[in-house]
Amino acid sequence: MALYEHVFLARQDLAQAQVDVLAETATKIVEEGKGRVVKTESWGLRGLAYRIQKNRKAHYVMLEIDAPTGVIAELERQTGINEDIVRYMTVRVDAHEAGPSAMMRRNERSERDRGGRGGDRGDRGDRGPRQDRGDRPDRGPREDRPRDDRDAG
Fold first, then answer.
1. Per-residue pLDDT, 47
2. What would the 3-class secondary structure string for 14-41 be?
3. pLDDT tens sequence across 81-98
4. d(CA 59, CA 67)
5. Burial, 55: exposed, middle or buried (Cβ in 10 Å; 0-12, 13-18, 19+)?
6. 63 DSSP β-pair partners
7. Of 4, 33, 98, 108, which cross-links 65 as Cys (Cβ 3.0–4.6 Å)?
8. What beta strand segments (E) does 31-96 contain?
9. Are the beta carbons of 45 and 58 closer than 8 angstroms?
10. Across 7-19, average pLDDT
11. What is the pTM (predicted TM-score) of this model?
12. Is 47 exposed, middle or buried (0-12, 13-18, 19+ CB in 10 A)?
């Protein structure tokens, strides 16, 4: 049997329980065809790069599958019919990833980095007091420098 990764995007207005039912339905289709779902990951509600069927966000779910080709064809057929799924993609892989996928590791890392700092800037060090730093040596005083809108005249 071949190894596959199947990712689908479910509509943003579905509850997480409904998304889990969609994943269970896909699992049932694979198991009825003598295949097995090795791992199921829900990546959560994430923003889309562009609107798809008036959705700006979607629930992402990834299934790692070990099944014959005919089962994957049936899974894609059923997924394409379902109105709650806005996009899907199935890719044949040589081996499944051990442990969490790259998306799950990314989510864990970003949550860990945000802890207590409030953003992705990290430690900015001691920059000293914020006060007037005076004129920069490479420029003249501010009022002597021409502005773009004054030059246009």
1. 94
2. CCHHHHHHHHHHHHHHHHHCCCEEEEEE
3. 999 999 999 999 998 878
4. 24
5. middle
6. 6, 40
7. 4
8. 36-52, 55-67, 85-93
9. yes
10. 94
11. 0.68
12. exposed
3-state secondary structure (DSSP) of residue 112: helix
22 with 36: CB under 8 angstroms? no
36-52 β-sheet, strand order: 36-52, 55-67, 2-11, 85-93
**Range 36-44, long-range pairs (CB < 8 A, 24+ positions):** 36/65, 36/66, 36/67, 37/63, 37/64, 37/65, 38/64, 38/65, 38/66, 38/96, 39/63, 39/64, 39/96, 40/64, 41/100, 41/101, 41/103, 41/104, 42/16, 43/103, 43/104, 43/107, 44/107
Q: Which pairing describes strands 85-93 and 36-52: parallel, antiparallel, or unpaired?
A: unpaired
Q: Which of 11-20, 69-78, 81-90, 115-124 has the lowest mean pLDDT?
A: 115-124
pLDDT-based confidence at 135, cuts 50/70/90?
low
The answer, yes or no, to whether residue 137 has pLDDT greater than 80, is no
